[in-house]
């Protein structure tokens, strides 16, 4: 059942990417994760829904910003490579990727 749900969600995200544009799948995943956060919040949990809101909110913002500014995966503004060692370069690359939706509007 879980595999079928994952397959349907992946197909829906691929269809959204093809019809709407790149990163539409991110927006769809963000909405699904936020719905999951609401569900887990009704069960009385606190920390798990908060984590889901953070992840889902970032995915939604990422998808909407990339669609809004018509940035495709082929023309990403910042290359996802790192300079330096694994201790310094990889965290920099991760922070740049996490900040990218907010940097698009700047």
SSE run = HHHH
Approximately how much helix is present in the residues? Answer: 55-70%
List the total number of helices. 4
Residues in β-strands, percent: under 5%
N-C termini distance: 43 Å
Q: Which sheet architecture does the biggest sheet show?
A: none
**Class from helix and strand fractions:** mainly alpha
- Number of beta-strand segments: 0
User: Low-confidence spans: pLDDT under 50, at least 5 residues?
Assistant: none
Computed CA radius of gyration, to the nearest angstrom: 16 Å
Mean pLDDT: 87
Principal-axis shape equals globular
What does it look like?
The chain has helices at 2-19, 24-42, 47-68, 89-103. By secondary structure, it is mainly α. Helix 1 (2-19) packs antiparallel against helix 2. The protein starts with a helix and ends with a helix.
Features:
4 helices; single chain; mainly alpha; 106 residues; 70% helix
Q: What topology does this entry show?
A:
Blueprint: H1 2-19, H2 24-42, H3 47-68, H4 89-103
Helix pairs in contact: 1-2, 2-3, 3-4
